Amino acid sequence: MSIAKPDEGKTHPGIRFNSPAAFWTGIFSVACGVLAHLPEFVGARSMGFHMAHMPMSPLMLAGMLTIVVGLALTSYGLVPFSVLSHPPVAASARVHFRALDSARLTGQHWGLLFVLGIALVIDVMKPATLGFVVPGLKAEYGISTRAAAALPFVALTGTTIGSLLWGLLADRIGRRAAILLSSVLFIATSICGFMPSFGWNLFTCLLMGMSAGGMLPIVYALMTEAMPAKNRGWLVVLHGGMGTVLGYLLASGLATVLEPHFTWRSLWLAGLPTGLLMLMLNRWIPESPRFLLEHGRFDEAEEVMRRFGVVVTRDMAPQHEAAQSRSAAESHGRSKLLTIFRTPYRLQTLTVGMYGLGWGLVNWGFLTFTPTILRDRGLDAQSASEVLFWSALIAVPATLS
């Protein structure tokens, strides 16, 4: 049975910008604002690139203002604020979609895994860099290890906050748009390496953590939605393991190469090129079919699913069933999150939550302070980073096996 299509003609699943001109102008402004901090960093070369307690120059202040303006323009161009205040009722309630999830792995799947793998590596690299930053930061600012520990604490707190915020945001503006927003924040927060005061480092790293935490669940969501069910388990596990190992490998490699010559501050500059790289790769990341269906973009959802070898049949849902679905979506939409804390999911939620907390404390607690421990034992910056680089490299075949 045929139904009315929301868009006539050929559709192209992608981001529907609020204002493309504002978005790209904002990107340019953010990049220029970051580059405006470089002269002061280069000028500190004679002092070993130490910028602690230096006053901010007019050029740096102008650069920070330019970044703020750029972020505002980018957000305006990317986010349709009407959707944020009045989210649409799930349009998919009007239609039945029966997808045969027996698709075979194709070149499209492997291409998506490659692009999302790069995103995951870049995303893991951000918090992993914290461990290599802390020893140099502690020495330059003349603070104790306990005081310096505030940096990873604030950044990882931002990661947790970002995971929650971006998860909600991705359901409103789309997965691809949320990834773009994270990428822009990657670029903006690369000025963390130029901050003369420890307080400004904490603030910029909080934003960095939010962007890193925001991208991570979206990458996994896109993988699970695009991969065939029969291959999903091992692909997601392998992808996550390799992304974590390679992200730490990249962080330790950059620390080995850059820190001995340009100090710990140079490690944060990687946010500029990696953020720009994610902007370029975004065009090869498909929008989530689930998001497209929820917003009534049925033809675009079908196009995405066909691209990944999923056969889709579509027919009208019975009127009473559609009405019940809309009513349920409106009545219970706000309480869906609470469902996992009720019977019969309460025990599973508690178990997974405790496992995640334990893994996070052991993993990030150990990895973050390992460089500091090695430096306190007498190793120089390059030697300590090399030890961790080779350890991460050895972990690659172990992860594959």
- CA distance, first residue to last residue: 50 Å
CATH superfamily annotation of the largest domain: MFS general substrate transporter like domains
- CATH top level label of the largest domain: Mainly Alpha
* Overall form: globular
CATH topology of the largest domain: Growth Hormone, Chain: A
In brief:
This protein has 401 residues and is an all-alpha fold. It has helices at residues 20-35, 38-43, 58-78, 81-85, 107-141, 145-148, 150-173, 175-188, 198-226, 229-262, 271-281, 289-294, 298-307, 319-332, 336-339, 346-376, 381-400; strands spanning 95-100, 311-316. It contains 17 helices and 2 strands.
Explain the layout of strands and helices.
Blueprint: H1 20-35, H2 38-43, H3 58-78, H4 81-85, E1 95-100, H5 107-141, H6 145-148, H7 150-173, H8 175-188, H9 198-226, H10 229-262, H11 271-281, H12 289-294, H13 298-307, E2 311-316, H14 319-332, H15 336-339, H16 346-376, H17 381-400
Antiparallel strand pairs: 1-2
Helix pairs in contact: 1-3, 3-8, 5-7, 5-9, 5-10, 5-11, 5-16, 7-8, 7-9, 8-9, 8-11, 10-17
If you had to describe this structure to a student in words, what would you say it looks like?
The chain is globular. Mean pLDDT is 81; it is low at 1-12 and 319-334. The protein has helices spanning 20-35, 38-43, 58-78, 81-85, 107-141, 145-148, 150-173, 175-188, 198-226, 229-262, 271-281, 289-294, 298-307, 319-332, 336-339, 346-376, 381-400; strands at 95-100, 311-316. The chain has 401 residues and is mainly alpha-helical. 71% of the residues lie in helices and 3% in strands. Strands 1-2 form a two-stranded antiparallel sheet. The chain starts with 19 loop residues before the first helix and ends with a helix. It folds into two domains: 18-81; 95-329 and 340-400, MFS general substrate transporter like domains (Growth Hormone, Chain: A, Up-down Bundle), CATH 1.20.1250.
